[in-house]
């Protein structure tokens, strides 16, 4: 496992930690929302805007070519990161949400109809849920939810009952942003292929790609989406992976410059993937952060990152499960993502978050873009502490100790 001396070295790379002083600590436990950035990533973007900035794909001049090189280099890095077959299978988007919307518009609206079923889990982030609600409403396809058991897992029976020949799309998270549950998407997709060979499988990897090795070929998914900003890279650097035949069978999402082949007065022809899905001037600055973030994660090792984050979660879970005024919502056992979601008896999550913030601890409070999941537990919101490789066990301790501050200020007494 990563040693505390290694974590100390890693922390030196993260400028935001300079904000943390003895008098005014800053413990960032909201990496599931967005991660902080190492200086290497910030320097790459600085370098791009200082010395490599030009209109990508269009010019014959030096800086345009430099920008194209940065952009296409990022595509190559992402291809290798997720084990895709070719760079053509990597479409840059703003984020996971945009990737899912692209699929909803370009595949869902075009291919689904009444009688078809879209299978998704109750754990989905709204990005992988509201999008399919829209498609269902427009096409007449039906949404079918996979529910979870007390272990916060989708039971095999649920999968075998709900994925049927009528299933035309499986839209599933690889790691829940609320529960930390990591469904066995590979087995689910294999089952889908057996019972409905023409169906497509979309995997939401927003919370998985930053924390564990991903191999899209091994998963055999048709599409995979994630957000660079949740894995040390910049906001605006999102990825949609698609098997090439799937992508080239889809019409473009947005129309305009840089995605066309020929344009006539009355019609146009379009580039093949990925160009046809990247209309307009792309966010090369954001893309420039991806190879550096990927190198950074790979240098530590995603297996080691997952192991270390699990250690932090196990520690928090063990301590918090002794507290009878706290209900833990997230998954009780490993494997699980790097987060713990909980509620204080009789205290609103916003109060918990505000009190912790007064002690320099940043957690998330609210519904975490998963209202149906919260409603299925009979609640509306929760608190979430999420961890990354730059967190320490001492920070987790500080967080746990300060739960007493919540008790004190809310008049709950000490435990
Ligand atoms: C599981 C999951 N999917 C999708 C998203 C959407 O990501 P973004 O807001 O970067 O598009 C998130 C963001 O929190 C998420 O946790």
Automatic annotation (TrEMBL):
**Which intervals of the chain form a coiled coil?**
none
Its domain of life reads Bacteria
Q: What is this protein called?
A: Cysteine desulfurase
The job of this chain, per UniProt, is described as: Catalyzes the removal of elemental sulfur and selenium atoms from L-cysteine, L-cystine, L-selenocysteine, and L-selenocystine to produce L-alanine.
Q: Which reaction does it catalyse?
A: (sulfur carrier)-H + L-cysteine = (sulfur carrier)-SH + L-alanine
Protein family according to the UniProt entry:
Belongs to the class-V pyridoxal-phosphate-dependent aminotransferase family. Csd subfamily.
* Name of the top EC class for this enzyme: transferase
Q: Name one GO molecular function term.
A: cysteine desulfurase activity
Identify the NCBIfam families for this entry.
sufS
């Amino acid at each position: 496992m990563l040693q505390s001396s290694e974590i100390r070295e890693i922390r030196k790379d993260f400028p935001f930690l300079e904000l943390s002083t003895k008098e005014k600590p800053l413990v960032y436990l909201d990496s599931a929302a967005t991660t902080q950035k190492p200086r290497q990533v910030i320097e790459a973007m600085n370098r791009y805007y200082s010395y490599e900035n030009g209109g990508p794909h269009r010019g014959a001049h030096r800086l345009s070519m430099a920008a194209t090189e940065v952009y296409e280099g990022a595509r190559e890095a992402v291809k290798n990161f997720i084990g895709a077959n070719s760079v053509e299978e990597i479409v840059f988007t703003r984020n996971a949400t945009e990737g899912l919307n692209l699929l909803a518009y370009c595949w869902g609206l075009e291919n689904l109809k009444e009688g078809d079923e879209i299978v998704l889990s109750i754990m989905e982030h709204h990005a992988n849920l509201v999008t399919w609600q829209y498609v269902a409403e427009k096409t007449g396809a039906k949404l079918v939810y996979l529910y979870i058991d007390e272990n916060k897992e989708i039971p095999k029976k649920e999968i075998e009952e709900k994925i049927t020949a009528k299933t035309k799309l499986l839209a599933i998270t690889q790691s829940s942003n609320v529960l930390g549950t990591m469904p066995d998407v590979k087995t689910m997709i294999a089952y889908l292929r057996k019972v409905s060979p023409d169906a497509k499988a979309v995997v939401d990897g927003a919370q998985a790609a930053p924390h564990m090795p991903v191999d899209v070929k091994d998963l055999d998914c048709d599409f995979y989406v994630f957000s660079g900003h949740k894995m040390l890279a910049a906001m605006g650097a999102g990825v949609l992976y698609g098997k090439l035949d799937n992508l080239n069978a889809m019409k473009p999402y947005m129309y305009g410059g840089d995605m066309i082949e020929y344009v006539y007065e009355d019609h146009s022809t379009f580039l093949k993937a990925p160009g046809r899905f990247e209309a307009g001037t792309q966010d090369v600055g954001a893309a420039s952060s991806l190879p550096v973030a990927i190198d950074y994660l790979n240098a530590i090792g995603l297996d080691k990152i997952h192991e270390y984050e699990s250690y932090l979660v196990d520690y928090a879970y063990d301590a918090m499960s002794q507290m009878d005024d706290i209900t833990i919502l997230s998954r009780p056992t490993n494997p699980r993502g790097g987060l713990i979601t909980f509620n204080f008896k009789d205290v609103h999550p916003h109060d918990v978050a505000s009190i912790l913030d007064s002690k320099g601890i940043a957690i998330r409070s609210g519904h975490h873009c998963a209202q149906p999941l919260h409603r299925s537990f009979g609640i509306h919101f929760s608190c979430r502490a999420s961890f990354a490789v730059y967190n320490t066990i001492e920070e987790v301790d500080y967080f746990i100790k300060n739960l007493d501050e919540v008790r004190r200020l809310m008049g709950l007494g000490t435990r």
